[in-house]
Each structure stands twice: as structure tokens, then as C-alpha cells.
Design brief:
Elements (H helix, E strand, L loop, with lengths): L28 E9 L14 E9 L5 E7 L8 H9 L5 E8 L5 E10 L2 E4 L8 E2 L7 E5 L14 E9 L5 E7 L12 E4 L21 H11 L3 E5 L1 H12 L6 H11 L2 E4 L13 H19 L5 E3 L21 H5 L5 E3 L4 E3 L2 E3 L1
Parallel strand pairs: 11-12, 12-13, 14-15
Antiparallel strand pairs: 1-2, 2-3, 3-8, 4-5, 4-9, 5-6, 7-8, 9-10, 16-17
């Protein structure tokens, strides 16, 4: 099985309280089809609460009702800095009008009004809201109840075509065209990366802490990937690889290095490289960094039979040496990776770029 290469991405979880008067979507919704995917952040000044993301059709297994799910980039201002500026540029409008129009008849089959409440946009449950519902576990989307027989009457020869418009009170609007059956198949790829980093001495990371679920070990993660044949990318620091070898030679019945070799051979394990000691690389001279990256890549290749091309950046540090805070930084670490066959790097969730935290 070919592993999906890892592409860095940022994930932001937002909590929005449900509006008591707004109906909830039924339980046991099942995806029927994704019928449109839109670009995000491409319209200058567009409010993230009006930036349409995707359109999909879901059906309740309990009631049989069909719903149109319309998702947005963000219904709160808790978005990355550049996107947050869209709220400012658009004057932080007090409302966003959402309409779903059927192209064949030109009629509006559903609509909603999003009203700004403090830092969030919430649906207004009044006469302007005709059928839209909210799912508290899906805070950045609205669900529109579809009229009966909408889907059954559609076919590839005569698809159901709609236009979704998000129109803020001020600033630009966003428009998405969708059809069922979909004009093309939409798919998304992701990669699982498991990061293991412990010292050369004693570690309980392999088997965890017994019955303590919060202290589970690396073995549970590997069991999940192996048992379900789900490809995963495993980063074992050089020191952790060494500890695993010592443990196996001193009575540990589970040989973790051998287990990963089995995973590489079977196709459910890919290996990530790094710097052997997981040190703060920009503050160490080039010779030490180069040796550390080289020895780790050699260990991964020799021990697991896998030539790594992606690296995990240790110790949450990737500094810009061309500007602040370059003072006192001894080394630019980019060339250390490229010189040893690494074509991409994974930044930790709290990497320091030019002195700022990027979560």
C-alpha cells in the first residue's frame, strides 16, 4: 500500500453554544455525496463567516430526511491572523444572508440569516430562517432540510443544480454552484504522523502506564494501525530507537524496532526522520546539526529498510535567520535536511517562526 505523503495543515477547533430555539439535526446522519468544494481565503476582505467551504448531502438513517450541509471557513473570529483581518476589512457586519436557489426554477428553496453575537455568528431563528438547522458538534456548518423527492428525481442526464450565496451586510459575497449527482468526485487525503521522543534512559512510552488510559503507550497506536491496515508515518527519535533496541536485548518480549520493520514490509508503516538528539538546532553549529541529521537518517534506513524523505523538526524551533530574532542564532538549519535527502519537514504545533507562536 502506498503511503499518503504528509502535507502540513492547521486545524482549529471552535466551540459555539446552541441556540435553544433552533432545531437540531437528527441523529445518525449519513453522507450521501459531496456536491461542491470551494476555495477559501481567495477573496480579499471576505468575512470568514461568509466564506463557503463545501456543500454535501446527508440523509438521516432514522427519519429518512435529506439535508443539505453548507460549511463555512469559520463562524467565529478564532481564525489565523491573516484571515481574521477579513472581519476588520468587512467592517464586522451584523449579519450574513444565506440563500439556496434552485437553478432550473430560479426559486429560493431555503435561506438563513447569520447574526453576529460577540465573537461568533449564529443563526437567527425567525421568519427569515426556513428550514436551516444547527449541529452542536459541527459548529461551522448549517443544515438545510431538502424538500421530499428532491434527490429521487435527479439523474446524471438531468441533475439537480443549485446556487448557494453568502452575502454579508458589507463587503464581498461568496457564491458556490453545486449539482446532484455531483459533476465530479471530491476526495481528501490525510496522513497520520505519530511522534515518539524520549531519552536514552528508562522510558514507559512503549507499553504505557498499565490501566491509565491517559498514559497509554506506543503499542496501542501501532496495534490500531496494524489491526486496521491504516497507513501511518512513525517518527522514532534516535534516542528512542536506541532505547527500543536496549529493551529488546534485555528481555522486553515486544521488539518495537522489529515490529516497525514488519509494518514497513507490510505497507502500514512509513518512517519519519529527524535529528538524533532532538536538540535546538538553530543554536548549535552546522557540523553538529549535519552529523545529527545524517546519523538519524542512516539509522532509519539501516534499521527499518526505509529511506526517509520527511523530517520532524525537534524542539519546536525553526527560526528566521534573516531577521528578528536572528541575533545569537548560529545556524540556518534548512540545508541540513536537504543535504540528506529530506524533501519536506513537519513543524510541531508550537513552532516558533520569527519569534511568534504558530499554533
Amino acid at each position: 500500500m502506498k503511503l499518503v505523503r504528509f502535507a502540513p495543515f492547521l486545524l482549529y477547533v471552535v466551540l459555539i453554544f446552541a441556540i435553544p430555539s433552533l432545531a437540531e439535526v437528527p441523529a445518525n446522519l449519513q453522507l450521501v455525496d459531496v456536491i461542491a468544494v470551494d476555495k477559501v481565503g481567495d477573496i480579499d476582505g471576505l468575512n470568514p463567516a461568509a466564506d463557503l467551504l463545501s456543500v454535501g448531502i446527508y440523509r438521516s438513517q432514522d427519519t429518512g430526511e435529506a439535508f443539505l450541509r453548507v460549511s463555512f471557513l469559520s463562524l467565529t473570529e478564532d481564525v489565523p491572523g491573516q484571515l481574521a483581518q477579513a472581519f476588520v476589512k468587512s467592517g464586522r457586519p451584523g449579519r450574513v444572508d444565506i440563500t439556496v436557489r434552485e437553478n432550473h426554477t430560479g426559486s429560493v428553496i431555503n435561506s438563513a440569516v447569520l447574526s453576529r453575537d460577540d465573537m461568533s455568528f449564529i443563526p437567527v431563528a425567525d421568519k427569515a430562517l426556513t428550514g436551516a438547522r444547527r449541529n452542536v458538534s459541527d459548529p461551522d456548518a448549517l443544515y438545510f432540510l431538502l424538500p421530499e423527492n428532491t434527490l429521487s428525481s435527479a439523474s446524471s442526464a438531468d441533475p439537480w443544480r443549485i446556487t448557494i450565496t453568502a452575502n454579508p451586510a458589507t463587503g464581498p459575497r461568496d457564491v458556490v454552484l453545486a449539482s446532484y449527482p455531483a459533476d465530479k468526485a471530491y476526495a481528501a487525503n490525510c496522513a497520520f504522523v505519530l511522534h515518539g521522543n524520549q531519552g536514552i534512559g528508562y522510558t514507559d512510552v512503549f507499553h504505557g502506564e498499565g490501566d491509565n488510559l491517559e498514559g497509554s503507550g506506543f503499542d496501542e497506536a501501532m496495534q490500531a494501525h496494524e489491526g486496521n491496515n491504516i497507513p501511518g508515518n512513525f517518527h522514532m527519535s534516535g534516542t528512542l530507537m536506541t532505547s527500543a533496541e536496549w529493551a529488546a536485548r534485555n528481555g522486553d518480549p515486544v521488539d518495537f524496532n522489529a515490529w516497525l520493520v514488519t509494518g514497513v514490509t507490510a505497507g502500514w508503516a512509513g518512517m519519519i526522520t529527524s535529528a538524533y538528539g532532538q536538540h535546538m538546532m538553530p543554536f548549535v553549529n552546522n557540523e553538529m546539526n549535519d552529523w545529527s541529521v545524517a546519523i538519524q537518517a542512516q539509522m532509519v534506513s539501516t534499521r527499518y529498510g526505509y529511506v526517509p524523505t520527511v523530517a520532524w523538526i525537534p524542539e519546536r524551533v525553526w527560526l528566521n535567520t534573516t531577521g528578528y530574532p536572528s541575533s545569537g542564532v548560529n545556524d540556518w538549519i534548512g540545508d541540513n535536511w536537504m543535504n540528506h535527502g529530506v524533501n519536506g519537514v513537519i513543524l510541531d504545533d508550537d513552532v516558533h517562526l520569527s519569534g511568534h507562536d504558530n499554533h
